[in-house]
Amino acid sequence: MNDLQFMPHQEEVLNLTDDKNRCAYYLDMGLGKTFVGAEKMYLLNNTVNLIVCQKSKIDDWVDHMKTYYPEYRVMDLTKKSEGVNFRTLVETKDLYDQNIQIVGVINYDLVFRRKYIAHITDFTLLLDESSLICNENAKRSKFILKLQPESVILLSGTPTAGKYERLWSQLKLLGWDINKKALHHCIIIQDYRLLSKKVRMKSMSSAKKHKQRSHRSYRNSVATAEYFQNRQILKVSQQKVMKEKSNLFTKLMGLFKKGDK
Q1: How far apart, in whole angstroms, are the C-alpha atoms of residue 149 and residue 120?
Q2: What value does the CA radius of gyration of the chain take, rounded to a whole number of Å?
Q3: Which of 137, 116, 134, 138 lies closest to 173 in space, CA to CA?
Q4: Counting beta carbons within 10 angstroms of the beta carbon of residue 123, is it exposed (0 to 12), middle (13 to 18) or buried (19 or more)?
Q5: What is the residue-level pLDDT of the chain in tens, covering all 261 positions?
Q6: What is the Cα–Cα distance from 61 to 84, expressed in whole angstroms?
Q7: Strand partners of residue 103
Q8: What pTM was computed for the model?
């Protein structure tokens, strides 16, 4: 690897995630996400690495990896011959008997069309502009969410576009197995608390009527979320009571049978 000099903020985020094998770097444009992501992939030190990016960024990633990490064998998987070579390497055991590491670079619109990628295991997956999998119903998102990487690196300057519920698919890749509806309720309640605090701190004036209306809408959403949670608690309690009644009935029948004898 060529000697790289990182900026203070880049060194800080790398140090903070030093012991993590699944991490997201949500850095603004111009802060060097490519350098951070590539260095983290190098530090994870997996034999097989897959970079998924936009089609327009493929050449940039290939050039970056070849320039700064010459020990890697880098392949552009949009090219047929290199795609065949990559597949041959990951599908045979020869790769793991040699002291080589490979990096495949492919775009989002092509990755789900390469079915053999779904069978790769124990690799590092790097998603450049990970916000492109926010729609979990899209083919590329479904395919990526079913992959079996050992390590995950997410890069994006705008991971949510202002809608935090769109983080669900990225959180899933990072290892948080949370239901999408539960995540949505958590976000609503958190936003309501923050907004309530702001409203209490500000005087009520006509210029703030829009915020008052937003406050009411959040309050209604939280009420719905709390109602849903209470229904779940009630359902569990009812099931517990019915189970206890069933056990009691079974015990009584056993006593009656002993009395008959």
Answers
A1: 8
A2: 26
A3: 134
A4: buried
A5: 567 888 899 999 999 999 999 999 998 888 889 999 999 999 999 999 999 999 999 999 999 999 999 999 999 999 999 999 999 988 886 665 567 899 999 999 999 999 999 999 999 999 999 988 888 889 999 999 999 999 999 999 888 766 776 778 888 888 887 766 666 666 655 554 555 555 545 544 444 445 444 555 555 665 666 666 666 667 767 777 676 666 665 655 665 555 554
A6: 19
A7: 49, 74
A8: 0.70
